Amino acid sequence: MTDPAPLIENHVRQSLIRDKALDLAGKYAHVFKLLPTDAEKPTEPGTWGTYLYDEQFRFWIDSSHPEAIQFFKNILDEERSIVMSTELTVKEENSMKGLFKANFKAIESVLPKHVPPERAIRVSLAAVKANPILFRQCNPLSLMNAIIEACILGLEVNTPLGLATIVPFGKEAVLIIEYKGKIQLSYNSGLIRNFSAHPVFDGDDFTYHYGLHPDLQHVPCNKKDPGQLKFAYAVANFKDGGFDFEVVDERIAMSAKDRSAAKNKKDAPWNTQDEPTMWVKTAIHRLWPRLPKSPVMQRAADLDARTEAGQGQQLTNILDADFTEISDPKELKTGKGGNGKDQKKAKTAEPENPPETTEKKTTWAGLSPETAKHLITTKGVVGDKMFAHAVATVSAKMGLKGANETIIDCDSVAKAINEECGSLMDKSMA
């Protein structure tokens, strides 16, 4: 018993058929039938096809009958109308809100401390409402994972800020980190002192060289017509000294253009007066993988690399992560100082299956809400195993390991854990 696959390609069409099945089965019982899933094919003559209505019933249609032909035509017309619609229906919007409500804790747990969860959800919902195809075409789990991934990175999606974009790729929702988002992540890491990028025209005074003593000099001309676009470059100055830069010439820029899906469209940025910006974006994208990275930046770089290589973003495990192992900052009761002496002990939560690298119990006491939130974010970035390994390493180094308990009782210890996570992340990518 095989369903005619071309007739149901996505959940939009399936939903339309399900909504009409009961009414049609009542009006045209000789053409449309709702039968138990284990029932045999209808005995009446006809060309019968079947669709799964729910877990208990199947919807049978005699596709040779005029009413069935009209039914299919109506379904396709309605589907086309919905897909082309620029707004979510009330039912779709309520369903989307339900997804956010069901995953509120997961979103709240991974957000940076300066981003209220209500704002993140509001922005994400607005992004889906502005591009309904995300909800209609993408797997809901894939969409929620892409949104939560953006929350982990601290980037608002599909906003005028241009930090990150969620786009449909088949049935998968793919998170694209835009060049402005990469610049923001660089500044947020605290590792970059300054980030700049500019186009270079024929009339500019521009020189650069790589090697043991790299250098770049650029003096823009003041003419109304600066001449033909020749180069673009991006420069990053590191907080602890040093710098790196990337120069893009016409060959590199055209190679990037050739990989663009919109390269042949007349109104695409590559083919308009925005072309210099596209060269600059290319320079930023090429420079960014070489910059020193925080764990959050490394996570973003991994996503970027998989997207560039045409691989899946592998976001399906985010919603399955344990977001409750570290106490919620709202439950932490702080006193006068940050050393734990004048503070009440925070509520603790033990992992059900502690990793072998940790002791039987871990107590989080004396942490400020901000530090606890930072730990939650770090844990979401590096994963449970790497985070547990970092806790065990720091505990051993600082003499915090007891017979059956590891006590993290001040912000300085939490900072050491964050730094160890960053070190482990760097080693894993070496």
Can you describe this structure?
This protein has 430 residues and is of the alpha+beta class. Among the domains are: 5-84, no CATH class; 192-289, no CATH class; 329-429, no CATH class. The protein has helices at 11-27, 66-84, 90-102, 104-110, 117-130, 133-137, 140-153, 179-189, 250-258, 275-287, 295-308, 369-382, 384-397, 411-429; strands spanning 32-36, 48-52, 57-62, 164-169, 172-177, 192-201, 205-209, 215-219, 229-238, 243-248, 362-364, 406-408. Strands 1-3-2 form a three-stranded antiparallel β-sheet, with helices on one face. The protein has a three-stranded antiparallel β-sheet with strand order 6-9-10. Helix 12 (369-382) crosses helix 13 and helix 13 packs across helix 14 (411-429). 30% of the residues are buried. Mean pLDDT is 75; it is low at 1-9, 320-365 and 401-407.
Pairing-aware structural class of the strands and helices?
A: alpha+beta
Biggest β-sheet strands, sense, barrel = 3 strands, antiparallel
- Fraction of helical residues: 40-55%
Shape verdict? flat
Mean pLDDT: 75
Q: Any idea what the radius of gyration is?
A: 28 Å
Largest beta sheet: strand ordering: 1-3-2
Estimated share of beta-strand residues:
15-25%
Gap from first CA to last CA: 52 Å
Order of helices and strands: HEEEHHHHHHEEHEEEEEHHHEHHEH
> How many strand elements?
12
Low-confidence regions: 1-9, 320-365, 401-407
Number of helices: 14
